[in-house]
Amino acid sequence: MGGLDFPRANHDCESEGTSARYRTGWQSHYVRADALLTPFPDQVFDLAFANSVIEHVGDTKQQETFASEMLRLGKRVYCQTPNRWFPVEPHYLALLVHWLPSKYFTYSVHRYFTVHGLITKPSREKHERVKAGLRLLSRRELQRLFPGCKIKTERFLGIPKSYAAYR
Questions:
Q1: FRET label pair with 137: which of 8, 9, 96, 107, CA 20 to 30 Å apart?
Q2: Are residues 32 and 105 located together in one domain of the fold?
Q3: Three-class SS string for 70-85?
Q4: Is residue 150 a contact partner of residue 140, using CB atoms and an 8 Å limit?
Q5: What angle do CA 22, 12, 15 make, to 5 degrees?
Q6: Model pTM?
Q7: What is the pLDDT of residues 120-141, one digit of tens each?
Q8: Are 120 and 112 a contacting pair, CB within 8 Å?
Q9: SS3 13
């Protein structure tokens, strides 16, 4: 991972107020840490990569922190996210529901008018967790989060479906 000599045994580490758990796996190892405040030095990774993650990290402030952390850690960056203005919401697999005011995107709409709801039959608690944990971005917002990065537009039938910030 990034040319660092990571420990081969499981243990907790503390770094700048963060904690991470190092684990070994089958011929590899990984670090489980808070992506908003990682225990790594600047520019330690050749590539900081996130595919459809940033829309799940929380509110605007948390998304800003996540993007800053990606920019800090990676010599190169790739962050892809669905387009807020694409008519199909990719998490719920439904037309236009993500454009509803929050108070109108109720449990019943999720459960009975989305493919996700029809297939998974979520509980009311799960509906609230999914709804609270999702904030889609526009191209302008992604560009603001990743200054100095180029933005690639992925299209479906000519309509911008998602965006990727990269450098």
A1: 107
A2: no
A3: HHHHEEEEEEEEEECC
A4: no
A5: 95
A6: 0.80
A7: 999 999 999 989 989 999 999 9
A8: no
A9: strand
Q: Are residues 141 and 127 in the same domain?
A: yes
Residue type, 28: S
Contacts of 161 (CB under 8 A, 6+ apart): 82, 83, 86, 154, 155
Question: Over 80: is that where the pLDDT of 158 sits?
Answer: yes
Angle 156-118-99 from CA coordinates, rounded to 5°: 50
Whether residue 152 sits in one domain with residue 83: yes
Query: Per residue in 60-108, pLDDT tens?
Result: 999 999 999 999 999 999 999 999 999 999 999 999 999 999 899 999 9
- State which residues form the domain around 7: 1-38
What's the average model confidence in pLDDT over 1-23?
A: 45
Residues 56, 91, single domain; the answer is yes
Tell which wins on pLDDT, 11 or 155: 155
Cα 106–Cα 111–Cα 117 angle in degrees, nearest 5 = 130
pLDDT at residue number 24: 54
Is the domain of 45 the same as that of 96? yes
Helix (H) / strand (E) element for 21: namely strand 18-25
